[in-house]
Every structure is written in C-alpha cells, then in structure tokens.
# Entry
Amino acid sequence: MKTTLKSILLIAAFLSMTSCGNDDTPSFSEQSSSTSSSTVIDTSAFAKGADVSWITEMEANNVKFYNAAGKETECMELMKSLGINSVRLRVWVNPSDGWCNKEDVIAKAWRAHNLGMRIMIDFHYSDTWADPSAQYKPAAWEGLSLEELKAAITDHTEDVLNALKDFGIEPEWVQVGNEVRPGMLWDTDASVSGATWDVSLDGVTYLTNQENFAAFITTGYDAVKAVFPDAKVIVHLDGGDNNDSFKWIFGDILNPYGAKYDVIGMSLYPDTSWESSVSACVANMKDMISRYGKEVMICEVGMDQEPASVAKECLRELLTQAKAIDQCLGVFYWEPECYNSWNGYNKGAFSDDGKPTEAMDAFSD
# Structure
C-alpha cells in the first residue's frame, strides 16, 4: 500500500460519505470522517473496547457489516452502537502489504476519534505479528547496536504518535510491545547478543539479556511521554490467568531493572469451560495491583464464535468482575468484527451473515 497519509484520509472520508447509487448501499454518516479538532472524549468511564485493526483491510476486500436488523453499517459506528467506547489499533514498522503501517493506523484512529471513541495504540516493534511465538525486530533494524536499537524505538514511536497529534488525536493508552512474555526485538540470527531472549523456537535457542529487555520498555515509555505526557504506557503479556508468569516478568525482570510503565496489560482466551480462567485472571489482576501498585487492563479477550451464548456469559462475568476492581481500566475484545474465518480467525463475535452475535450484548449491559 504505497500512498500518503493525506490520500489515506481522503479515501477514508470518501468511502464513509458516499454510496454507489443503489438502494442496498448505505450512505455512511459524515461523523466517521469529518474533520473535528474539538471532539470531546469521555475518559471517565470503564473502557469497553475492541481491537479493530483489520477493519480497513476487510473493507478493501469488500467485507460488509450489518446491524441486527440487517442494515449495512460502518463498522466503527456499529461497534459504538453495541456499547464499545474504545478501540485498540496495532502498529507495524514496515509491513509488506502496508496494512497496520502509520498511514493505515491514522486513518482508523481518525474515524474512531471523530466518533468520540477512546484510543489505544499497540506498538509491536516488528514488521508483522509480535506475540509469544515471534518477537522478531523489523528488517530495517537488523544488525543495529543496542544504542541504535533504542534510537530506532524512539524514532518509530515518536513518528507515529506525532502524526496522530498532528490530526488532533490523543491516545489514552499506548502499549510498548505486544505480548512480550518471551521478550522483544529478537534477532533472526540467534548468535547476536543484546536484543534476544531465552526462548527456544524451531530448534533455535535465543540468548538471554533481561537488562536490555527492560531498557527497551523504558525507551518506549520515554518516547510515548515525550509526545503525550498523559498517555498511560502498558506492558502487555499473554496468559492473563497465569500469575506465575506475571510475577516472573514484572517481579524478577522488569521491576528490578527499573523498567518504566504505568499499566499491566493482559490477554485472556478462555475455552468453553471458562469459569476457572476468568477466576484466575481476576485473581491475577488483584495480585498485580497489590504487589506492584499498578493499574491493570485486559487488552485482549476472545472466545470461539460458537456457541455465542457461552461467549456472552463469559464476557459478561469478566466485565462485571473487572469493573468491580477500581484499578482495572477496561476490557478489549480482540477483533470481534471478524466472521467467515477472516484470515483464519474464529474467535470473532459476528455471525457468518456479518451481524453481531449475542456475545456483543455483554458490552451493552
């Protein structure tokens, strides 16, 4: 996707305000794209959020979204009508297809901002997915020294956030890294020290450097605060129901090495026997608050699409218990708008006809 930021925004505005001239195609509200430098965002409420990072790619592939009555509706407006007040958007450095690069992220953030929605920016510090199985640094960062890597983190973070700022968009939360339990910024060459981690993957054991891991987190934190001093910086781990891994990362590594952050973020993907996972996750949140004095947040949650009634029950219980914790900032569903196995993902909350399932009802309670 080789296009300028200005053209991305113009395209987004055009698509949201026009129709193709037949009765089946809606004319989306200008609210989703009209310029607004004075949009009032309510930051006082519990965040009921959704990661909708795939939305522009889905739209480009002619994926449609419908409300319960079957009326085609712009996805972010639909999310808001379902009780979602916040969106989460991932950022990749130089993705091969352009999706989730700076321009794409800003086009989505612009739409959310003008709907009065709160925004979380999720820096992966990679050209593609960063998660527990892969935390590879961007290709352009290969071979950099430790100080050069820290400079690259700073430049990338500030570049994206300053671009948001130029459009009057202020994210409330910023993740520095995504599901970083196995560390971050691995080299593809495991013999390179200084930016690797103690994990075995595909027969390769990556080296351990916990001090550098903490330094990368602090570097990201400082870059965020340089642009948005009031934004809350999140360190996000997978397995929110695994208290031992959270105590290890925060208690044995990040805190002893002086890593700076504001919020402990968690992912949780329960199966249909969800009660124990939710209970363990809630207990973990309370322990992190008590042990480290930090706020917490569920940055990702998802369940199998069927049966939707079970997902609704699980989400309702998780939201109820999370809202009862004063230091819990919110719960974000990961890509609920996905359906028909979009990109192989089957934990969305929309049915195969493009309508929200009853799982989404949990956010409107």
Observations:
- Residues 10-37, 190-197 have pLDDT under 50 and may be disordered.
